[in-house]
C-alpha cells in the first residue's frame, strides 16, 4: 500500500503577513492533518477489484489522484459508476468508508510538525475549524485519533453545504461560524479540489505536497507549498506575524 510522496519543484513568495492581524486558521483533514490517502487508495483498489471494475485491472495511483482524492463521495460515486443506480453507488462508497475506518484505527499518523503548528495556533488564541469533504464518521474518527478533538472550534462537512469542495461553500460556512474575516484567515490544504475551494472563498491557501503533484497544487492557486508542518518556509511565514506584533507593541 504505497503512494509516492511528491517533490516541490515550484518556489513562490512564502508570506502571509498581509493577513495580520490573524484571526483564524482552517484545515482540511485527509492528507492535511494526516497522510491517509494511502489507506483510501488501498480500500478503493481492493473493493473495486472485488467487483471487477476496469476489467479486473487494479486502479493505479495516478487514477486515484485524478479521479478520487479530495473529492466528495457523491461525485466519486457518479464518476466511477455512471451506469449504476445512484443508491447502489452510494452503498459501495459507504462500504468502502467502513473499510477505511477499520484500517485507519491502526495506521493513521499525523503529518510531521502538526503538534508544533497546533501549539503555535493555540498559544495565540486563534480560531480554528476542520473543513472536509469526508463523511462525518471518517472526519470525527481522524480528529479523535490525532488527539485534536479539543483543538477545533467547528467541524464543517461538505455534505452539510449546498455544494462541497471545490466550491467555496464549506470554507464560507467556516468563516461564518467562526465570525472570522477572509482577509485575516488562511487555509491548509493538500488537494487541488480543496485549494480551489479555499481560493474561491477569498483566502490564501498553503498547499501540502503530501501526495498530490506540486504542479497541480500551484495551478489550483496555492499561495505556496510546504512538505509538512516542519517546513522552514512555513515557519518563516508564521514568524512574520510574531515580528509584526512585536513591532506594533513596541
Biggest pleated sheet: 6 strands, parallel
Total strands: the figure is 6
Q: Roughly how many Å apart are the termini?
A: 53 Å
Strands of the widest sheet, in order across it, are 3-2-1-4-5-6
Radius of gyration: 18 Å
By helix and strand content, what is the structural category?
A: alpha/beta
Number of helices: 10
Description:
The chain is α/β, with parallel strands linked by helices and 250 residues long. It has helices at 37-50, 61-67, 73-80, 86-107, 114-123, 136-145, 169-178, 192-200, 214-219, 232-249; strands at residues 24-27, 127-132, 154-157, 185-189, 205-208, 224-226. α9 (214-219) links the parallel β5 and β6. The longest helix has 22 residues, at 86-107.
Topology:
Blueprint: E1 24-27, H1 37-50, H2 61-67, H3 73-80, H4 86-107, H5 114-123, E2 127-132, H6 136-145, E3 154-157, H7 169-178, E4 185-189, H8 192-200, E5 205-208, H9 214-219, E6 224-226, H10 232-249
Parallel strand pairs: 1-2, 1-4, 2-3, 4-5, 5-6
Amino acid at each position: 500500500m504505497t503512494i509516492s510522496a511528491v517533490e516541490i519543484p515550484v518556489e513562490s513568495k512564502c508570506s502571509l503577513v498581509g493577513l495580520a492581524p490573524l484571526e483564524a486558521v482552517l484545515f482540511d483533514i485527509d492528507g492535511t492533518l494526516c497522510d491517509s490517502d494511502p489507506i483510501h487508495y488501498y480500500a478503493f483498489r481492493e473493493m473495486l477489484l472485488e467487483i471487477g471494475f476496469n476489467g479486473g485491472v487494479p486502479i493505479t495511483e495516478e487514477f486515484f489522484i485524478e479521479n478520487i482524492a479530495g473529492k466528495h463521495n457523491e461525485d466519486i460515486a457518479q464518476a466511477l459508476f455512471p451506469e449504476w443506480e445512484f443508491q447502489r453507488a452510494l452503498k459501495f462508497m459507504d462500504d468502502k468508508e467502513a473499510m477505511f475506518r477499520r484500517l485507519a484505527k491502526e495506521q493513521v499518523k499525523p503529518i510531521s510538525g502538526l503538534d508544533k503548528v497546533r501549539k503555535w495556533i493555540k498559544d495565540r488564541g486563534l480560531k480554528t475549524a476542520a473543513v472536509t469533504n469526508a463523511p462525518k464518521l471518517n472526519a470525527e474518527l481522524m480528529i479523535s485519533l490525532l488527539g485534536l478533538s479539543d483543538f477545533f472550534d467547528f467541524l464543517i462537512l461538505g455534505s452539510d453545504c449546498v455544494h462541497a469542495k471545490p466550491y467555496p461553500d464549506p470554507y464560507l460556512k467556516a468563516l461564518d461560524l467562526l465570525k472570522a474575516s477572509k482577509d485575516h484567515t488562511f487555509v491548509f490544504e493538500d488537494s487541488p479540489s480543496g485549494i480551489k475551494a479555499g481560493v474561491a472563498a477569498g483566502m490564501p491557501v498553503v498547499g501540502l505536497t503530501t501526495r498530490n503533484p506540486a504542479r497541480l497544487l500551484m495551478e489550483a492557486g496555492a499561495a505556496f507549498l510546504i512538505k509538512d508542518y516542519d517546513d522552514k518556509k512555513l515557519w518563516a511565514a508564521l514568524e512574520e506575524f510574531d515580528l509584526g506584533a512585536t513591532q506594533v507593541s513596541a
